[in-house]
Amino acid sequence: MAGRNYKWLEKDMLTPRQLKLFKYLVAYKKKHEIMPKFDEIREYMNIKSKSGVYQMLGYIEWKGYIKRYPAHARAITILKEVA
After folding, report:
1. Are 53 and 47 in contact (CB under 8 A)?
2. Is 11 a domain residue?
3. pTM assigned to the model
4. Closest Cα to residue 24, out of 9, 14, 12?
5. Rounded CA gap, 14 and 18, in Å?
6. In 1-83, which ranges are E strands?
7. What CATH number has the domain bearing residue 74?
8. How far is CA 61 from the centre of its chain?
9. How many domains does the chain have?
10. Which pLDDT tens digit goes with each residue over 59-68?
């Protein structure tokens, strides 16, 4: 990752792109009362593949901001709030 230096980040801090995705999830849930589909996330984040979305959600989950439930569509729970 040339040009990106996130060494200053703590383990539980989100990168700018992860924060953008997290805020999108929170706003979408508030507006629609359900989480977005992977395709909606992919379009919003301008990611070319669903595996990229899966990876970003994995990092956000690893950092403790969300919880995903395998084999369930749109099964994401928000665990933390960001100011």
Report:
1. yes
2. no
3. 0.83
4. 14
5. 5
6. 66-68, 76-78
7. 1.10.10.10
8. 8
9. 1
10. 999 999 999 9
